[in-house]
Design a protein that fits this description.
By secondary structure, the chain is an alpha/beta fold. It has 12 helices and 9 strands. Helix 2 packs across helix 12. It binds phosphoric acid mono(formamide)ester (CP). Phosphoric acid mono(formamide)ester binds next to helix 2.
Amino acid sequence: MTAETSDQPVWTRKHLLNLAELSREEIVHVLDTAESFKEVSTRSVKKVPALRGRVVVNMFFEESTRTRMSFELAAQRLSADVIDFSVRMSSTKKGETLLDTARNIEAMGVDIMILRHGAAGAAYHLSRAVNCCVINAGDGQHAHPTQALLDLFTIRERKGRVDGLNVAIVGDIAHSRVARSDMRGLQTLGANVTFVGPPTLVPRAFESLGARVVHDFDSILPEMDVINMLRIQKERISSSVFPSLREYVRLFGMNSERLRRCKPDVLVMHPGPVNRGIELAADVADGPHSSILRQVTNGLAIRMAVLFLCQQATDAA
Ligand code: CP
């Protein structure tokens, strides 16, 4: 039975923890829902009452600009009340555990918790300890599901499809939660994923995940429809995994010369924050092939969709 003929809702999840758990149908449903929410941001009054009376708390234990602010704005656009939990000013500084902190916040009547944490699995841990919805906003090197959803949305919007596209993910794959989540989502929607980078950051073992592994960036440029450049952690590059930052930029940086060898309609992506002049030359980051700011705009619509769907599924359960 297909989604069109079934009475069952496509989305029944209370939590969004990892993109690897989602079916093709569920991912497409989030993207379609986000498409309708994107229109809200073009109105003069940018609000809908979908989460009126609900309380959303942003719990960020790691730095963030894009994810934190777009979840906050997404909740506001859905008319929810939003609390921004400040780690620095909280009692976690006095030794309170994550779960005790979360249970105390939930006791104030919170409906949705959004968690970014440095430990892989933190959002799973939290989802088993509280009754409200939990959204993973990035956990260690494990997963960043809303980043992957907004990347898929942007690719579908710019290319008209995801199925059959050749997508390169370039850089520090080994330590990247974005790479893991993007790969899962892209594969679920039928794209061909190539990981690109030095062997120290892109081990051959990653082929077991179903992605191609390539260490020569120049060799794959002409065949790619999408090139997603990941942030390089300069301190790691300059120490043990690569001889020098200059060497890394020479072999794996995207610049206008490399862009000329790509397909004329290649899409250049970056999740942010960008190290200008390292993974991306400034003229490429700001040029017509770049989708960096469009990704951020689309992130708002995706996060509105995720908040709405998880709360709707919880209410229906
Ligand atoms: N892409 C991303 O997660 O950016 P932030 O760390 O600024 O949220």
